[in-house]
């Protein structure tokens, strides 16, 4: 029964998504435009009216897809991960194009980009070809034919910006993420948001600048720029939308985001102004195509705000020699999360508004009482945290606690790394943090005796500038020495790039013992608040559906006053701004009702939370107490050189002999990812898929530790 439901959900999601894509391709055609106008006229006779039909056809399918995805996610962890990775399917996720301005592109990403470019091209062609067939000189504007053609091109660029805007918010959804169903995590999908945002601003600028240019040469610009029309396009609203979009885009440039994060953070909240004035400019009929992303983002933001309250407090801190800190936070023992998940943290003592994401290093199977994140103190906010912790350490009376607001954890729906026959883990610097969570998860799963497939061999390559960073591996030291687990086949290669070769005979054991002198500082929490994590997917799906019903009910209620029954609606009688305001009111009422339900559900779950203890079990075992050190001599340490990944993969290909599918998980600087991606691409040619199926096939799996 479970497998049947799982399959039906998957088929239904594929059908829904495919129908939504087909709808985008049909929308610019003359046949669809004519039929849809007839359908809207027929809908005016019933309570839904035209805007209710627009919501049900253009908006609700993607909301329904998100709801189906939540149900699918709720069922997925119950499904044992015993199936092997299919080689031909995995080939699509391997790097296809490397070292481009957009970074590394996989086959799936390249196909998605081609689909989007095809949609943009098709929409522009259909609209502009139809416009040119009906061109007549515009006497009120005193435009010639070429000027009118130019104006039409500028106008249709606005439609291309609308398509990008419709997709813009999906990559940054967290709890309601649709991309999560494809195995794409939040930190990886942020770059899709950047691409879409840049494209949207580009087309919007062409749209606005082209229109202003035509108005200027026709000496009509002063009349149009300041007008707030009762019907049709409101040009003043469009100008405010364009200016707001440009401000958000410029504040998002890397030079601003990295050096002035608070500017980027605060300017991004102008998205509310942007969306509201876009609605006033484009009208409600165009907005319903953009509304799915805004609707889901509003609910997602609501869930996150409720989830981050009340504040919790730090249990303990470990300070490493390389200015890296590890925070231990209390959590509800029922909270389970997948490896490579991230946690958003806000510390009100430092800033009441700034949230920062960090990779989780712990495993919910290994320790169900606490959750740990590792932080490299480099930026302004992390250095402030480092100084704050040192103030607590130096204080003779450590009675003050540090309050923390938490969102998450957010991660993949299931743990698929164990599906590979072999596993190659590559970490660079602080990029080792998500890899530590993978190792913890595999170790705890192997100890539990679950009937699951495990990689026959695991290899870890850690690249770091200084040898003191090896201390970051101390949390997995007891895993290496545990011969009863699957880690008897674990091999480590450590590359220290900026130091000469160490003293003769110094091996992994001595280095770990030397650099494992980190301080562990316990705190005394004053509250008993625990991290509960995101709401149950079934509850989120139910609340999302409830909000959709409330929105549609409010829309029908307002329609009763805007378009009374028995009277044909007149565009001149009802200003478009009033219709848009009623749409906004319906959305706010739906959010308010959803907030009440979400708060009640959260309150109930917080009362049922199981208190955590201070015992961290066997995590973080110190090396000084270890007796078995012989096994660490098998591992390698290299000084003064960067790893040659092409050569390493050639050697590993022989070591992984018999392992047909090898997952290559990489987290580190972009240059290191590109080198690994290039090596994987060279090893996985199309000819090898056919002629050498028994040899190792490397599946590239990049991870991100920064946004």
UniProtKB/TrEMBL annotation:
Domain FAD-binding FR-type: residue ranges: 298-416
Primary location: membrane
Any one annotated GO CC term: plasma membrane
One GO MF term attached to the UniProt entry: ferric-chelate reductase (NADH) activity
The EC number(s) this enzyme carries: 1.16.1.7
TM spans (from-to): 7-26, 55-75, 96-125, 153-173, 194-215, 235-256, 263-280, 538-561, 581-601
Phylogenetic lineage: Eukaryota, Viridiplantae, Streptophyta, Embryophyta, Tracheophyta
One Pfam family in the UniProt entry: Ferric_reduct
Gene3D superfamilies, per the entry: Nucleotide-binding domain of ferredoxin-NADP reductase (FNR) module
Location(s) in or outside the cell: Membrane
Presence of keyword Transmembrane: yes
Entries under InterPro entries matching the protein: FAD-bd_8, FAD-bd_FR_type, Fe3_Rdtase_TM_dom, Fe_red_NAD-bd_6, FNR_nucleotide-bd, RBOH/FRE, Riboflavin_synthase-like_b-brl
Topology of this chain in the membrane: Multi-pass membrane protein
Keywords of this entry: Membrane, Oxidoreductase, Transmembrane, Transmembrane helix
Superkingdom of the source species: Eukaryota
Name of the protein this chain belongs to: Ferric-chelate reductase (NADH)
């Amino acid at each position: 029964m479970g497998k049947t439901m799982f399959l039906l959900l998957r088929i239904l999601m594929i059908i829904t998504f495919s129908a939504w894509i087909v709808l985008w391709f049909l929308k610019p055609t003359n046949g669809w435009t004519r039929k849809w106008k007839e359908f809207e006229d027929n809908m005016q006779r019933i309570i839904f009216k035209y805007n209710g039909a627009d919501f049900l056809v253009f908006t609700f399918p993607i909301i329904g897809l998100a709801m189906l995805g939540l149900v699918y996610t709720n069922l997925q962890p119950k499904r044992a991960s015993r199936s092997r990775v299919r080689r031909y399917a995995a080939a699509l996720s391997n790097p296809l194009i490397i070292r481009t301005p957009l970074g590394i592109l996989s086959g799936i990403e390249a196909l998605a980009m081609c689909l989007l470019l095809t949609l943009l091209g098709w929409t522009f062609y259909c609209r502009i070809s139809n416009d040119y067939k009906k061109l007549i000189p515009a006497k009120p504007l005193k435009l010639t034919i070429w000027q009118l053609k130019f104006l039409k091109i500028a106008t249709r660029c606005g439609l291309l910006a609308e398509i990008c805007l419709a997709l813009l918010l999906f990559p940054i959804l967290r709890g309601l993420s649709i991309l999560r169903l494809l195995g794409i995590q939040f930190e990886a999908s942020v770059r899709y948001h950047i691409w879409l945002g840049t494209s949207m601003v580009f087309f919007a600028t062409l749209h606005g600048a082209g229109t202003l240019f035509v108005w200027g040469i026709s000496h009509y610009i002063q009349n149009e720029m300041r007008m707030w029309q009762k019907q049709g396009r409101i040009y003043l609203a469009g100008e405010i939308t364009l200016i707001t979009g440009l401000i958000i885009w410029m504040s998002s440039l890397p030079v601003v985001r990295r050096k002035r994060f608070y500017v980027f953070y605060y300017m991004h909240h102008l998205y509310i102004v942007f969306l509201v004035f876009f609605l006033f400019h484009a009208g409600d009929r165009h907005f319903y195509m953009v509304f799915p992303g805004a609707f889901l983002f509003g609910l997602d933001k609501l869930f996150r705000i409720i989830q981050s309250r009340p504040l919790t407090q730090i249990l303990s801190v470990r300070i490493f020699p390389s200015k890296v800190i590890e925070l231990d936070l209390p959590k509800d023992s029922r909270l389970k999360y997948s490896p490579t998940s991230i946690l958003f943290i806000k510390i009100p003592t430092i800033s009441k508004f700034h949230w920062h994401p960090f990779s989780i290093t712990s495993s919910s199977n290994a320790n169900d009482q606490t959750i740990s994140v590792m932080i490299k103190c480099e930026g302004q906010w992390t250095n402030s945290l480092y100084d704050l912790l040192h103030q607590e350490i130096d204080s003779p009376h450590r009675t003050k606690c540090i309050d923390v607001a938490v969102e998450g954890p957010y991660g993949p729906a299931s743990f698929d790394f164990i599906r590979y026959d072999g596993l190659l883990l590559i970490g660079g610097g602080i990029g080792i943090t998500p890899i530590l969570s993978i190792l913890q998860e595999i170790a705890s799963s192997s100890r539990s005796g679950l009937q699951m497939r495990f990689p026959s061999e695991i290899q870890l390559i850690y690249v770091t500038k200084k040898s003191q960073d090896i201390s970051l591996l101390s949390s997995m030291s007891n895993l290496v020495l545990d011969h009863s687990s699957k880690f008897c086949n674990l091999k480590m290669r450590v590359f220290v790039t900026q130091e000469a070769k160490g003293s003769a005979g110094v091996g992994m054991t001595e280095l770990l013992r030397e650099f494992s002198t980190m301080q562990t500082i316990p705190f005394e929490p004053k509250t008993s608040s625990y991290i509960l994590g995101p709401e149950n997917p079934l509850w989120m799906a139910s609340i999302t559906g409830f909000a959709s019903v409330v929105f549609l009910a409010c829309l029908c209620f307002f329609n009763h006053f805007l378009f009374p029954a028995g009277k044909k609606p007149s565009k001149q009688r009802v200003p478009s701004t009033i219709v848009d305001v009623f749409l906004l009111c319906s959305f706010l009422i739906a959010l308010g009702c959803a907030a009440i339900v979400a708060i009640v559900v959260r309150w109930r779950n917080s009362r049922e939370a199981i208190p955590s203890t201070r015992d961290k079990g066997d995590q973080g075992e110190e090396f000084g107490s270890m007796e078995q050190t012989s096994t660490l001599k098998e591992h390698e340490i290299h000084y003064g050189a960067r790893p040659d990944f092409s050569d390493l993969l050639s050697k590993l290909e022989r070591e992984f002999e018999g392992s047909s599918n090898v997952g290559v998980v990489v987290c580190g600087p972009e240059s290191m990812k590109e080198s690994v991606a290039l090596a994987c691409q060279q090893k996985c040619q199309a000819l090898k898929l056919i002629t050498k199926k028994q040899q190792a096939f490397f599946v590239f799996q990049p991870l991100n530790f920064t946004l």
